[in-house]
Amino acid sequence: MNINKKRLLVLSFINLLIIVHITLWYKFGCQKVGTFSLNGVVSLFGMGLLNSAAAFFIFVVLMTAFFGRLFCGWGCHFAFFQECALKIFGKFGINPKIIHSNANIIQYVFLLKTLTAIYEFWLIYGPPQFHIGLGDTQVMTVDLPRSPIIIILFVLFDAFLFIYLMGSRAFCRYVCPWAPMLAIFDNFSFWRIRKVNECKGCMSCTNSCTMGIRVHEEIAQYSVVVNTNCIRCLACTNACPNGTLSYRWSLNVISVTRRIQWLIPQQRDYNWYYEIMLIFCGLIVAYYTQRWLGSFQTFLGAAWGLCFGMLIIKFLDSSRVPLLETIQHKRRFLVAGLITLSTLAWCWTTSTSYDIRLLLRGNRYMDLLEYERAISIYNQAINEFPSNNEVRAALALAYKMNGDYNRAITEYKTLISNNPDNAALHNNLGTVYYRNGNYAQAIVEYKKSIQLDGHLTAAYGNIGLIFLKQGNVEEAIPFLRKVFPREEEMLKYILTLYNPNQEKMDRKGG
Ligand code: SF4
Ligand code: SF4
Ligand code: SF4
After folding, report:
1. Interval between CA 445 and ligand 1 midpoint (Å)
2. CATH value of 188-257 in 3.40.50.980, 3.30.70.3270, 2.60.120.620, 3.90.230.10
3. Candidates 178, 228, 232: which one to mutate for ligand 1, based on the most atoms within 8 Å of Cβ?
4. What ipTM did this prediction achieve?
């Protein structure tokens, strides 16, 4: 079995493990260990949380620093889809041309944007406090593509169309934000593709490389593959008829080239006008896909955008539209400027606003039952954003939970004056009156909320509860019937209320 088949087998096995993990998590509730994703860098440095994703991130980074980007060649589930697509194309005699372009700037923009999420976590939750929670995947899984449609779109566009238009491993070479990050660590790797025999210059190695690396040139120049896009797939060692190449311990890139290698293509297939158009298409579609489909779909959107850009280029080329000559000057300046501007624009348009940050920070203290701290943060937010009703509602709730009913009533009244037809607000105000022992006023508010929304069963239940508390079962029953359509359930509720576990029932009703 040749090395490519072995690798495909390993990648299939990885995907099988992922399916088993997802099934255990969602179907059988086995949630001890969460997602394995390089996104763990955000939870690790943003919150100090060592979850499964963060542990995975540390593992992959260390592995890359020692052995190079082995993970990309042998362990990434995205790699599997891309390799399969290439194999299927091969079966039909299609050999997609590998496009070399600076449009991979998009990867750096995505990486910087992802890393700014760490800063956002600091702003929201304060300095990270180290803690371990392997099953804590809350931050990571919110946007995962659980929808089959998204998965189908991913396979169709990111695997097939993208590879057809931009060549093998297009997702890895143009969109994946982890590629530039892993490439940095790859610079330190001693395990590389190395020349161990005489080279005849036949270029079989270069032709077999799915990452588009000019292997024969690097071997001729350095006797080692220095390109940090090398994913250690070993296809070149397999393809070399002369036994020239071997994956061996050798000097690392920096000691050979004396500088860090970034993911900048050595050659380019298009002029700058085309490249800027490609970058623009990738980023703009990524931005809108993120807004409409959620943050994970950013990468999907970038692939769509790049496909769209490539179709335009193909159209322009086939129509022979004359374009100006390539801009050669100040190329580095342009690249750096484009990355910075795109990242800034992206952060500016998608970052969490200050009032929402304060709200989230307060909510976190609410989750921890630290009501005083939550109240202080909500108050800070209200002072700066007095018209933000979402924050005021959170403040009212915090006062209620803290037992400061008078302040809670004041806040709910302010909310109601801004939004008098909101049934839920009247119900909430009623509940504060109830907790404060003012049953008469509570009933007034509950009735108002029923007038505004006849389907608000909580309000019926709350009135029923008050009547039961007052020993007035007959008055309570018509209201309780709205909550418990089945007579037995209602009777059970009433009986439970009058037993010694009354406090528990109070909480349920209130
Ligand atoms: S570059 Fe990204 S998508 Fe490609 S194999 Fe590596 S981690 Fe996976
Ligand atoms: S395949 Fe082997 S012999 Fe041919 S160019 Fe590459 S390293 Fe040299
Ligand atoms: S240089 Fe060789 S090992 Fe590296 S990606 Fe290309 S074919 Fe794979």
Report:
1. 57
2. 3.30.70.3270
3. 178
4. 0.98
